[in-house]
Amino acid sequence: MVGRMSTPSFADLTTIGVGGPIARFVEPDSRVGVIEAVTDADEKGLPLCVIGGGSNLLVSDEPFMGVVVRDARRTISVPDEVAPVEGADRTVHVNAEAGANWDDLVEFCVRLGLEGVEGLSGIPGTVGASVVQNIGAYGQEVGSSVDTVEVWDRKTLKVEELSADQLGFGYRTSALKTSMYQAPATPADEFFPTPRYVVLSVTFALRHSATGVVNFPQLAKALGVEVGDRLETAAIRDAVLKVRASKGMLEDPNRYYNEWMRDTKKPENVEAAFGGLYAATGSLDRDWNRHSCGSFFMNPQLTPEQAAKLPEDAPRFDVTLPDGSAGVKTSAAWLIDHAGFHKGFGVGDDAAATLSTLHTLALTNRGSATAEDVAKLARTVQDGVERAFGVRLVPEPVCVGIDLR
Ligand SMILES: Cc1cc2nc3c(=O)[nH]c(=O)nc-3n(C[C@H](O)[C@H](O)[C@H](O)COP(=O)(O)OP(=O)(O)OC[C@H]3O[C@@H](n4cnc5c(N)ncnc54)[C@H](O)[C@@H]3O)c2cc1C
């Protein structure tokens, strides 16, 4: 167990930098320690929040009268190192403990010449949480590279190894995430704000290849290639980080100066992130556009009838809805912008929480915002989009003590 004298607040632990004080904070550094910390809270009936990088959490300003557990295990390894390349498809397995920083994993895989996660470069957070919401970007989703996930089942009190099939990955969701909700943005009675299944480690199945596929038009444009072309994974990672930086969709590396975040990401990768911050902004100072939860709203998935009511020029992509029927995905950013909420929008003058000045979909803390300020901005946007288009946006972050239905 990592020993500390005091406890942090959620403002210390989250990328958006808001949220109240925490009654009990534990950082187990062994597998059994994680299970014991979770079981102890569950047995006592205390609210439990297993936190990773705090990049997908919006927590209320009120004190959290429960236990926050942060897994301090961060080892990344290649289990079949003796015979690392398996079969004609050149599969290599990589295992990472849940507390490992996600981008440390991506950097490790790219350096080792492994293909499969390079498009997910720069997404903040941990390996443990990556599978909860099936992180995705630039044409890749983590679910496609997952072999198995080792979890602690808080209901059966057993360790289970779940296969990719059992994990039910979908657009920003998985069976882990659905165990937390009874309806969109509506917490389940039993397990919230942490799923029934606490992720202990993830084994990825990657491909031994120095090149990867460029799967996204914006990325292809930045690289000067066609969608579908193959390029070095290192070049793809570099381009993804630059495109993300230009939109402020990276975390601010300054957060690693906070004593509660120190040592949670490899120092050389924090240093590289400072290099990227300087290249993008010309300064090493805090960049408030990065004090966010990333995309705050999910892209709505609509029935054909709902989609028919959208303006003709609204973006439309064919998708399969969770019930298996054909549906249409539209762009939350487009709806927000066309409802009149442009980059930098805030409620009132000198608002402490505003939309990012670089990206309509990111709600940001300009330095002194409270969770209530962020919630007020979120509700204003939700109400405005609903008035304009009849679509209620669903938040992507896990909202604790804040109702954004
Ligand atoms: C600037 C920025 C850009 C982003 N870009 C993207 C993007 O491109 N694509 C994307 O998909 N997401 C993106 N995100 C969202 C976020 O980075 C991901 O959701 C990430 O996986 C969250 O990881 P975390 O460790 O920070 O989770 P946290 O915020 O700490 O937790 C989120 C949820 O996961 C649960 N959880 C955490 N660890 C575990 C565990 N070990 N077992 C079970 N449950 C756990 C928590 O209890 C909580 O319910 C972005 C966020 C930011 C701030």
UniProtKB/TrEMBL annotation:
Pfam families: FAD_binding_4, MurB_C. Residues 18-209 form the FAD-binding PCMH-type domain. It comes from the Bacteria. Its cofactor is FAD. Its EC number is 1.3.1.98. The keyword Repressor does not apply. Pathway: Cell wall biogenesis; peptidoglycan biosynthesis. GO terms for biological process: cell division; cell wall organization; peptidoglycan biosynthetic process; regulation of cell shape. The active site is at R172, S295 (proton donor), E396. It is found in: Cytoplasm. Keywords: Cell cycle, Cell division, Cell shape, Cell wall biogenesis/degradation, Cytoplasm, FAD, Flavoprotein, NADP, Oxidoreductase, Peptidoglycan synthesis. One of its GO terms (molecular function) is UDP-N-acetylmuramate dehydrogenase activity. It is an enzyme of class 1 (oxidoreductase). PANTHER family: UDP-N-ACETYLENOLPYRUVOYLGLUCOSAMINE REDUCTASE. This is UDP-N-acetylenolpyruvoylglucosamine reductase. It comes from Bifidobacterium simiarum.
